[in-house]
Write a structure and sequence with these properties.
CATH class: Alpha Beta
Strand content: 5-15%
Distance between the termini: 49 Å
Strand order of the largest sheet: 1-3-2-4-5
Number of strands: 5
Shape: globular
Order of helices and strands: HHHEEHHEHHHHHEEH
Length: 236
């Protein structure tokens, strides 16, 4: 239906529906009906939605896929994937401002979550991100992937391409390839994906900022307003 693909209202409507669904799950908590509504795959069906948004936050001081103080008053969970053009737009346009303005002053912590929903190349890329994280270079890898982002499902996003990115940012490529093949890394990606499905994430990027869902690559001002309101609420 080309008329739908051309309509600028379609992504807006989808984002609004996704935000409502995600907020409903976060506020309401678990249950079998919630898991079905979230579209959980059979292998993810055992992942129950959290009772509160705080249960999603990991605050692991050694997490290489997180930016910011472990005890920051505001935590933004970023369900993302490397093929998504809107994830790339957020990473290039909004993320640097949020890091400079809120992460560096201790207000905000960003925790990445893998949500590789666009196909096999997304899953391969997610494993690449985890392999870069194993060398404590995830955010350099993220920046490089989005700086010259491939179109979705181009057929070119494979292990060799990811290894070339790893080499460009100075990683040990042999170790990178070994880690990419690790069952532990594959399970970690699946865990994030299942978690996202359980709370109603259906696409990327999807953010949860102290329990408030923000869907899509919104203008930077939307993130700033949400973060500042969350920081104010946390302080009160």
């Amino acid at each position: 239906m080309p008329e739908l693909r051309k309509s600028p209202l379609v992504p807006i409507v989808i984002a609004v529906i996704a935000a409502i669904a995600l907020a409903f799950v976060l506020l309401r908590g678990g249950g079998e009906d919630d898991k079905t509504a979230a579209g959980a795959a059979p292998e993810a069906a055992s992942t129950a939605p959290p009772e509160t948004w705080e249960q999603l936050v990991r605050r692991d001081a050694d997490d290489p896929m997180a930016l910011g103080d472990v005890d920051a008053p505001v935590v933004m969970l970023a369900y993302s994937e490397f093929q998504c053009p809107f994830c790339g737009k957020f990473a290039r346009d909004a993320e640097p401002t949020l890091v400079e303005k809120y992460v560096e002053d201790g207000t905000l912590r960003i925790e990445w979550r893998d949500f590789p929903y666009l196909g096999p190349e997304s899953s391969v890329a997610a494993r690449g991100g985890r392999a870069a994280a194993a060398q404590d270079r995830f955010w350099e890898f993220e920046e490089a992937m989005y700086a010259d982002q491939l179109p979705p499902n181009s057929g070119n996003l494979d292990e060799d391409y990811l290894a070339s990115v790893a080499e460009d940012i100075g990683l040990d490529v042999d170790q990178f390839r070994q880690d990419m093949a690790s069952p532990e890394i594959e399970r970690a990606v699946e865990k994030d994906f299942s978690e996202g499905q359980a709370i109603g994430v259906t696409g990327t990027p999807a953010f949860v900022i102290n329990g408030v869902p923000v869907i899509g690559a919104q203008p930077t001002e939307v993130f700033e307003q949400t973060i500042e309101k969350a920081a104010q609420d946390a302080g009160s």
